[in-house]
Amino acid sequence: MNDADVSSQIQQMVRFIRQEAEEKANEISVSAEEEFNIEKLQLVEAEKKKIRQDYEKKEKQADVRKKIDYSMQLNASRIKVLQAQDDIVNAMKDQAAKDLLNVSGDEDAYKQLLKDLIVQCLLRLKEPSVLLRCREEDLGLVESILDDAKEEYAGKANVHAPEVAVDTTIFLPPPPTSSDSHGLHCSGGVVLASRDGKIVCENTLDARLDVAFRMKLPVIRRSLFGQVAA
């Protein structure tokens, strides 16, 4: 092989090596570009995810605010309805309390009522000896019907007539007046208790009124505000 042939082969080898080096360099460049694009895509996806999470968070906050506003409006409406109910019921109760002021106007009817109230208390207490308290203005009426009340109780309970001591040291409050209808008062009736004070039967007209209204209150509210409350 002459020098020309050797030189030609060397040049071919150089071109081959250079071409191979260029191809490798291109491959490296493409690979780096792909890696850059992947990183860029990941950053874009991360940003999109962050934006989506921020939107969902704000959407949830807005939804919570709407629910709170609705709940507050609903509670305000319910409070108004309940207040209206209470105003009407209290007005009815006040009127009934004022009507009780006239109960003692008919002495015979009131005496019979006192007797019935005493008998009811005796039947509830079922005690052989009790203490009775009444209003000071009712003391004479109570003493006049007490024996009859004890005998009636004894007949109904099939026991001996109990001993009933009327307390003349402490009386029930006086009846209400038009100027002070909400103070401490008693429209009539009696309070009986066992001698040890452990069992008490309050049978005043005011207590009976309270019980009657507590029992009637749900019915009154339903009848007056059934459609609104629903």
TrEMBL record:
Top-level taxon of the source organism: Eukaryota
Record field: transmembrane: none
Gene3D superfamilies: 6.10.250.1620, ATP synthase, E subunit, C-terminal
Keywords associated with the record: Acetylation, Coiled coil, Hydrogen ion transport, Ion transport, Membrane, Transport
Membrane topology summary: Peripheral membrane protein
UniProt-listed InterPro entries: ATPase_E_C, ATPase_V1_Esu
Subcellular location field: Vacuole membrane
SUPFAM superfamilies: V-type ATPase subunit E-like
Major subcellular location class: membrane
GO cellular component: proton-transporting two-sector ATPase complex, catalytic domain; vacuolar membrane
GO MF: proton-transporting ATPase activity, rotational mechanism
PANTHER family assigned: ATPASE H+-TRANSPORTING V1 SUBUNIT E1A-RELATED
Protein family per UniProt: Belongs to the V-ATPase E subunit family.
Binding partners and assembly: V-ATPase is a heteromultimeric enzyme composed of a peripheral catalytic V1 complex (components A to H) attached to an integral membrane V0 proton pore complex (components: a, c, c'', d and e).
Protein name: V-type proton ATPase subunit E1
